[in-house]
Q: What sequence folds into this?
């Protein structure tokens, strides 16, 4: 069934990959951006042009997504599905409150409230993160909702349906961007659950919950962008260029291609016909980043010998996250960490004009 999908976050790693997958599947896509310049980045991208979407692709410019009613006009005219991947990641230079916590929480409420006024909307998919389920170290030592209360998070397997207790009161300041990112995801989950319970929407809502996402990013058109405008791939690039990442990454990853497919799969799932399935879906595979460069040495020995790719360090924070439903739902094996590393390193070599083999 071809649908009209509104996608937020189309200028980002995940949202753009979803946009490409949705167009390739024959859907019409409307995407929201904060400026005309950002719309140009999407519409002029070679991967988009290759798909020749014509009038199946259109942009809506919304300078501030957080104000009430911001999405009203973007949804008019038959939008059936919404995929909301347009919230910030934890960029260390961002202001923790105004550039991370507030947009994460307020953009989602504003989008849900606009969807409530739009009868054509059938389904809303929100991109969350495993950190929203794992919780922040302090409040997450007790876990509520899906009956895992009073058990340490590290001792239990957390899943997309786990809801860590929110701190009471919510902090008004944050020690760093990671704390505001985690709390933002936790509060968004809580608020969206409350919205569904209390507002009884005419559409259904699910979250897709990835671990750290890596893979080819068609938005990164040169070697500089590969390292600086590449979301979580920026972290892998640190390790591919001989440097040390100053903080550990959660040892749970997802290939961006799988993340995009998962969003579309979940978007077209009818929850009423699948009472056996949970409402929210994780997509994450356990990984230890210590061995990532072995894959690089194997795939690109010449680039390693020439010093274009150099072994760095990506520390791992081990986590226990259960996303076993994802392979069942996609009906295939998830892409391996090795393939994600090769895709990112290979794309970097392309942008450097270096022979891959
Ligand atoms: N990458 C990962 O490893 C990972 C893992 C788990 C979950 N996620 C989640 O997936 C979603 C997308 O992540 P990503 O990796 O695609 O990130 P990304 O490449 O940094 O893209 C973020 C997107 O969100 C938009 N955005 C950022 N701040 C915004 C704000 N204040 N107001 C409105 N829009 C804003 C950006 O638009 P502009 O271009 O206008 O800035 C961009 O389109 C986020 O919710 C993130 O938490 C990511």
A:
């Amino acid at each position: 069934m071809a649908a009209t999908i509104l996608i937020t976050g189309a200028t980002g790693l995940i949202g753009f990959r979803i946009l490409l997958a949705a167009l390739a599947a024959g859907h019409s896509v409307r995407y929201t951006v904060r400026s005309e310049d950002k719309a140009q980045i999407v519409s002029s991208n070679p991967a988009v042009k290759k798909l020749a979407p014509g009038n199946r692709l259109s942009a809506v410019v919304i300078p501030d997504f957080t104000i009430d009613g911001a999405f009203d006009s973007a949804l008019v005219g038959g939008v059936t599905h919404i995929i909301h991947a347009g919230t910030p990641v934890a960029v260390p230079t961002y202001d923790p409150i105004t550039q991370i916590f507030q947009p994460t929480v307020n953009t989602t409420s504003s989008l849900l409230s606009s969807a409530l006024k739009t009868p054509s909307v059938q389904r809303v998919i929100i991109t969350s993160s495993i950190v929203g389920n794992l919780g922040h170290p302090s409040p997450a030592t007790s876990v509520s909702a899906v009956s895992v209360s009073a058990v340490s998070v590290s001792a239990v397997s957390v899943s997309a349906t786990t809801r860590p207790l929110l701190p009471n009161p919510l902090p008004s300041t944050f020690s760093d961007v990671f704390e505001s990112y985690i709390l933002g995801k936790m509060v968004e989950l809580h608020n969206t659950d409350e919205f569904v319970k209390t507002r009884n929407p005419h559409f259904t809502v699910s979250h897709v919950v990835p671990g750290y996402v890596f893979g080819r990013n068609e938005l990164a058109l040169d070697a500089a962008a590969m390292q600086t405008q590449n979301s979580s791939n920026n972290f892998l690039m640190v390790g591919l260029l001989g440097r040390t990442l100053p903080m550990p990454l959660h040892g749970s990853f997802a290939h961006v291609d799988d993340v995009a497919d998962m969003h579309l799969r979940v978007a077209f799932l009818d929850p009423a016909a699948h009472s056996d399935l949970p409402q929210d879906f994780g997509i994450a595979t356990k990984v230890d980043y210590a061995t990532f460069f072995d894959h690089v040495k194997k795939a690109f020995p010449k680039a390693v010998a020439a010093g274009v790719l150099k072994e760095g360090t990506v520390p791992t924070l081990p986590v226990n996250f259960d996303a076993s439903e994802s392979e069942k739902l996609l009906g295939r094996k998830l892409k391996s960490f090795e393939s994600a590393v090769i895709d990112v390193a290979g794309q970097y070599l392309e942008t450097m004009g270096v022979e891959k083999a």
In short: Confidence is low (pLDDT under 50) at residues 138-153. Residues 1 and 310 are 46 Å apart (CA to CA). The first helix runs from residue 13 to 24. The pocket of NAP is lined by residues 9, 11-15, 34, 38, 65, 85-89, 99, 103, 107, 127, 129, 210, 212-213, 231-232 (CB under 6 Å).
